[in-house]
């Protein structure tokens, strides 16, 4: 389904073009997130990648080594769940950014077609 602003009914475009918003982040906040991203999420991402590098047999063997194996399985599961939640939050941010672009684009369309 094409979600092009031009395919949105004109009445709805005008209503959406009336929406207003302020910046969601400052440059300093973006810089801080980017500077700490790898330190915060690099280990979790790497754990996920390491699990993807292993076969079923390799994972079963690694996690079958008594308490040490159980701890490794719990650790990997927790790290990957945290990383997944982080990625889901990133999707929410991307959707918000796309909505902002749509509203701004509708304002441009309304000015051009008026």
* Overall shape: elongated
Q: Biggest sheet, open or closed, and with what strands and sense?
A: none
Helix content: over 70%
Number of helices: 4
Sequence of secondary-structure elements: HHHH
Strand content: under 5%
The assigned structural class equals mainly alpha
User: What does the average pLDDT come to?
Assistant: 89
The total count of strands amounts to: 0
Radius of gyration: 22 Å
Terminus-to-terminus distance? 26 Å
Q: Spans with pLDDT under 50 lasting ≥5 residues?
A: none
What does this structure look like?
It is elongated and about 70 Å long. It has helices at residues 10-17, 27-52, 56-63, 66-113. Helix 1 packs across helix 4 (66-113). The chain starts with 9 loop residues before the first helix and ends with a helix. It has four helices and no strands. The longest helix is centred in the last third of the chain and has 48 residues, at 66-113. By secondary structure, the chain is mostly helical.
Summarize the topology.
Blueprint: H1 10-17, H2 27-52, H3 56-63, H4 66-113
Task: Summarize it.
By secondary structure, this protein is an all-alpha fold. The protein is built from four helices and no strands.
Key descriptive features of the protein:
about 110 residues; elongated
